[in-house]
Amino acid sequence: MEKELKQDPINIVKVVLFGPESSGKTTLSRHLARYYHTVWAPEFAREYLQEKWNNERKTCEKEDLLPIAIGQMKLENSLAKKADKILICDTDLLETKVYSEEFYGGFVDERLNEAASENQYDLYLLTYIDTPWEEDDLRDRPELRLEMFNAFEKSLIDNNRPYILLKGDKETRLRNATEVIDKIIASKNDLHSFSDSLQDVDLHFMHQNTNDFGSPFEYKKTEKRS
Description:
Layout: E1 13-18, H1 25-36, E2 40-41, H2 44-56, H3 65-80, E3 86-89, H4 93-103, H5 110-118, E4 123-127, H6 145-158, E5 163-166, H7 170-186, H8 198-206
Parallel strand pairs: 1-3, 1-4, 2-3, 4-5
Helix pairs in contact: 1-7, 3-4, 4-5, 4-6
């Protein structure tokens, strides 16, 4: 597998938000990062494709998928070093593979296919489509939400990935997710920790304000959990 598509080794818990567009993944990513006082890896494709739309008035093409995958892994590997025991990932390469298959007649670049199979995560949070559809420049096919959801769940099953299904409002999703994640964290030893001091945790939050691509990401500071 190409190095730029490979996960850097680090002893942290990695959780992936997984599911179709407008199903609450980014909202839950932010909430989980706040809950665990850690960082989250945003979806690189959003900025990449928004810039493409702004400059060319073009949406995603299959030639974009490999650069998106490379950008996503660079982002994930960078933020993993700043994570406190757990990294929340708004997407992964398996999700990119599902979009490739569904939007481009089954086409998947072999390098993407290999990386999606090799990279591993501790838990996938499959988000159901019981959230309102929010239209923007990039989202399309709202009438195929159930079909896309089924494709995502099938991918998790076919690739033998550990996952739970999340439905309901934000509070219910957060509660159900953290119940499972807490057990995973408790089962691990010597997880990479940014700091146990509140002062350093406050400094740690500053890293989330700008990613390695110079893009700002909103992050609201919260009190440390007891």
